[in-house]
Structure of GntP family permease:
Amino acid sequence: MAVALSTGLYATHTLVPPTPGPIAAAGNVGADLGLVILIGMVVSIPAALTGLWWAHRIGKDIKSEMDEGGMSYEELKNQFEKLPSTTKSFMPIVIPILLIALASIAKFTKYSGPGSNLIIFLGTPVNALMIGMLLSLSLLPKFDEETLMSWVGQGIKDSAIILLITGAGGSLGAVLSATPISDYIKTLAGGSISGGILKLRVLMHGTSRML
């Protein structure tokens, strides 16, 4: 289970928006987010299936103490209150992805029919993710102080470090793109490698001093 989950989560987390890393990378290079989603899925799905196949192959020969005397799925499920439906659970993830993909298709095909502006507006990454966030509120068992303050507050606390890291990475990317560092990187392929590395280190040192 750990191999299957880690392979699938790692592949999608590093390659498929709307996770923060791919969104930041696509924004830094100016790539179309819908196209990044499609290409990321093409790469991540085979990687996830490979991890699942390996987990099934190796897992047959591994015995766990949890397999003996553990609770069944129904017993574990009964410990919780009424769980949301599968459709409601997937909507906060699937709807933003579909909106972003539709907006990318509309831009690529230069669709100008009825509703084109609305599709592009809703498919803007910030708007699509906001819609997903609002849809996730439907998963709350009830709207009271405990869920709105405690649960949401804990979610913000857990995600804050990820948002800070992503924001710092985007800021650093903007700083580097505003400097002639790309010209020095190009010299690594054409000119003297040692000289290019030296110039690159000098430029990086000067950038860090300015920061």
User: Anything to note?
Assistant: The mean pLDDT is 75. The two ends are 44 Å apart (CA to CA). Residues 1-64 form one domain. The first helix runs from residue 2 to 15.
